[in-house]
Amino acid sequence: MKQKKALLVRTLIAAAMTFACAASQAAEPVLMPGAIVREGPNPMTAPNQYKKAGPWKIGFSIWGFGNTWMTQMVHETDAEAAKHKDIAKLVFADANSKPAKQIADIEDMIAQKVDAIIIAPVSYTALTPVIKKAVAAGIPVIVHSTEVDTDAYTTEIQGESLYFGEVGGKFLVDTLHGKGNIWVLRGQAGIAADTMRYDGLRKALAGSNIKIASEQYGDWSYNKGKQVCESLMLSNPNPDGIWSSGGDMSRACIDVFKEFGKPVPPITGEGNNGFMRAWKNSGANAMAAVFPSEQGAAGIRAAVDLLNGESLHKHYVLRPAPITKANFAQFYRPDLNDNYWAPSSLSEADLKKYYGNK
User: Fold this and answer.
1) For labelling, which of 68, 161, 197, 316 has a CA lying 20 to 30 Å from the CA of 288?
2) Which residues are the signal sequence here (predicted)?
């Protein structure tokens, strides 16, 4: 009898724990598809810590319009903000890739007493003091798209840049059977996302016989990327593969190879529609890392949750599977133009409005 009672007690305890775990998982807010709670130490905000009645004024600071990805991220953020009646105003600021301007922009938001601040950081190190200042003023700070060297912010939603670089590097290691010379097209010097994507590449190459023959910055733009690839074609032709930190630069390189009448070597890119169109038309052996522009919209959702009194973890990450030949059709949109980035949370009406083929 005692054994049966003990078994019953253990069963009830196990059921209670299972229920509690399920309830906890069910309660976890969905900031965006694929966002997961990062492993390791990951504290949560206290319930009602930032709860505040609307209407709200939310600061939205970006590092700059370096390419069409950032433009789409702003569209996605604006569209998400429009869904929430308590958001009365979005205070937007473009840092133009200058850390000093982004610091000044955030200082101004603090002075305006915004209710939350969403930041796509221009610098890994420079923003730490102003982030601490905002949090000390009682303003929740949400960081997305690229990392900073402090954990003073309230929460972050990150398409991990290290992972982005690593999946592209692994593709080249596998495709080139661990040997050969590659071109490396980096993003913008000094931006944390560029450094970490590059670190991910180096991690993937470690232990292989793949050598970086040439390395240049293309600023994540088509025009600069094309200049870089034209220069490399003249000075260091015939790479065995190309690793690129961004889709616009990858598209530019494919166009350069076409203009020179040469086959495209194995190349990495990003979920940019123009890159995917060039990939398809060239028949290249390629892959695309996924870095959703929906991260801006996720920042809005996080701000709304916090101001509604919800608890959020400090760290959320995205590690989406890359776009390959096998799942290409799920992402490529032949009905949209080259400036569209997949995937997106924008409505079909907005996608056609901003990216429909004219």
Assistant:
1) 316
2) 1-22
